[in-house]
Amino acid sequence: MAVTRFAPSPTGYLHIGGLRTALYNYLWARKTNGTFRLRIEDTDTQRNNEDAMKAIINAFEWVGLNYDGEVEYQSKRMDIYRKYIQQLLDEGKAYYCYMSKEELDALREEQMANKQTPRYDGRYRDFTGTPPEGVEPVVRIKAPREGKITFVDGIKSIININCNEVDDFVIARSNGNPTYNFVVTIDDALMGMTDVIRGDDHLTNTAKQIIIYEALGFDIPKFYHVPMINNPQGKKLSKRDGAMDVMEYKNQGYLPEALLNFLVRLGWSNKDQEIFSMEEMLQLFDPSNINKSASSYNQEKLLWLNAHYIKNVSNERLANELEFFDCHISGHDKKEMLLDLSKERAQTLIELKEAIEKIVNRPETYDKKGVKKFIKEETPKLLDTYLRTLEEKKDSLHLACDFEEITKPFIEEFELKFPQLFQPIRISLTGGTQAPSVYDLMAILGYNEINLRIRTALEKNFDKEEE
Questions:
Q1: Quick check: 341 and 439 in contact, CB under 8 A?
Q2: Are 247 and 62 in contact (CB under 8 A)?
Q3: How far apart are CA 398 and CA 443, in angstroms?
Q4: In this structure, what are the phi and psi dihedrals at residue 175, rounded to the nearest 5 degrees?
Q5: What are phi and psi of 418, to 5 degrees?
Q6: What is d(CA 177, CA 63) in angstroms, rounded to the nearest whole number?
Q7: Is the confidence at residue 242, as pLDDT, over 80?
Q8: pLDDT tens digits along 264-314
Q9: What pTM, to 2 d.p., does this model score?
């Protein structure tokens, strides 16, 4: 029964790298019948963003990653952190450091000049003298000076870090506020985290956190450091590549199932399987099988997955999703036919909306290239004759096959090629030449609307410019 968490800082909106981390933690907790917690790391009051905090919660609701218990806010736990800082001070495992910023900067410049790694030199580690006046001290932990810090990473195997690479790092600033590594360790320990799944940019933090775990006698969780998501060129993902606010994916017409399916595959796989329902993810996911190397963002794959889910979710669901884009078709008498036809080519909900509107909205203009290519001198008479043929059977025209039964003999009688009739009809009904099947289109619109649109196109002469 794994206990996992996702712990974002509300300094910016949740992006897909963070959502992938949340998904991995969610899957592992749910698969093991454990607990998944959401914790907002908002101790940096100067950088916190209220809108970003709300956006994180909204993103979780949109993709359906439900968490257990209430959201934890670190800003409400300051008394807890200060208690443990005082405990370390009382036990001699931490100490006040009175080194000024100027002294620290001078030390770093000297070390860099000597080609040494910049690090605090421990000058106040065992200080017993009179503290200098006018300096508000920070609190530093006494890090081990010899040996190695060793832990088993669930993805990267055994990690060894020499103790001489970790200095006596700060656990509380001069204003008394605790630092990131300290509060994360305290929270993970007190909330009973068994597994910490996070990006491998946190790998250097882990050694420091283990020092805090051991100083306080806390159990150390299992760590999994997930490689980053790169752009197709192998560089850091930027907004242009897809590292944008998760809710922007909703605005661009992606379904949450598609985004989660896409993200689970960015770093984890099950043979060659590409499509994963949430049930399959829960059944198959194991963080030990996360790839050791970075993954590459693939926009085409995401669009392909989104198109798959658009085709396979219910039409009722699609109609509800389209409401967000101000496309209201729930009351349309041919809603099922309209969606079945329009979703076949749509990669996003925006494309689905555009396809629907191209059918339900009467065209205001006609594609000039299409008109020039397909509207010939004989076309008006041909369309008029075709409409009269439809009128004779208008009461029995309901399905695509009904229109097909009438149209095929008409084409044969007048020795036409299909584009000679179908493209003028498409242009009349939708304004363009790329609309879907003419028979399906006519079944959705019905005789009266077909007659109105074709007559209107003929009256306008297809917007032909007078020569």
A1: no
A2: yes
A3: 6
A4: -90, 5
A5: -55, -45
A6: 34
A7: no
A8: 999 999 999 999 999 999 999 999 999 999 999 999 999 999 999 999 999
A9: 0.91
Residue for token digits 């006046």? Answer: 133
What is the DSSP pairing of strand 138-141 with strand 94-97? antiparallel
255, 310 in Cβ contact below 8 A?
A: yes
SS3 letters across 314-325:
CHHHHHHHHHCC
Is 239 annotated as belonging to a binding site?
yes
- Enumerate long-range contacts of 250-255, CB under 8 Å, 24 or more apart: 250/62, 250/324, 252/348, 252/350, 253/306, 253/325, 253/348, 253/349, 253/350, 253/351, 253/352, 253/353, 254/302, 254/306, 254/348, 254/349, 255/306, 255/309, 255/310, 255/313, 255/321, 255/349
- Tokens representing residue 363 in the block: 């065209």
Q: Which of 458, 445, 425 is nearest to 333 (CA)?
A: 445
Q: CB neighbours (10 Å) of residue 93? A: 17
Strands 157-162 and 148-153: antiparallel
Considering 76, 83, 236, 239, which one is annotated as catalytic? Answer: 239
- Tell me the C-alpha distance between 382 and 428, whole Å: 13
Contact 152, 158 (CB under 8 A): yes
Q: How far is 26 from 264, CA to CA, in rounded Å?
A: 11
Calculate the CA 317 to chain-centre distance. 20
Which contacts (CB < 8 Å, 24+ apart) does range 312-320 have? 313/255, 313/257, 315/339, 315/340, 318/343, 318/349, 318/352
CA distances from 86 to 80, 90, 172, 375 (A): 10, 6, 10, 86
Q: How far apart are CA 24 and CA 466, in angstroms?
A: 64
Task: Examine the residue annotation and report whether 381 is marked as an active-site residue of this protein.
Answer: no
From 319, 324, 359, 322, select the one nearest 342 (Cα to Cα).
Answer: 359
Greater pLDDT, 205 or 244: 205
